[in-house]
Amino acid sequence: MGTITNHDFTVQSRKCGNSYFQKILSYFLHEFTLNIIF
């Protein structure tokens, strides 16, 4: 399925913190606005 396990995910989210979630949020926002425009 992938090389990222749940444990790795939690560790990464703890390490990166807000910046990591900010990346995801900005990504989804970008996709969302693209879907609205087109």
Molecular structure report:
The protein has 38 residues and is mainly alpha-helical. Helix content is 82%, strand content 0%. The chain contains two helices and no strands. The mean pLDDT is 71.
Element layout with pairings:
Blueprint: H1 6-16, H2 18-37
In short:
By secondary structure, the protein is an all-alpha fold. Helices cover 82% and strands 0% of the residues. The protein has 2 helices and no strands.
End-to-end separation in angstroms reads: 31 Å
List SSEs in N-to-C order: HH
Q: How many H/I helical runs?
A: 2
Largest sheet: none
Characterize the overall form. Answer: elongated
Structural class by secondary-structure content: mainly alpha
Descriptive labels:
single chain, 38 residues, mainly alpha, 2 helices, 82% helix, 0% strand, elongated
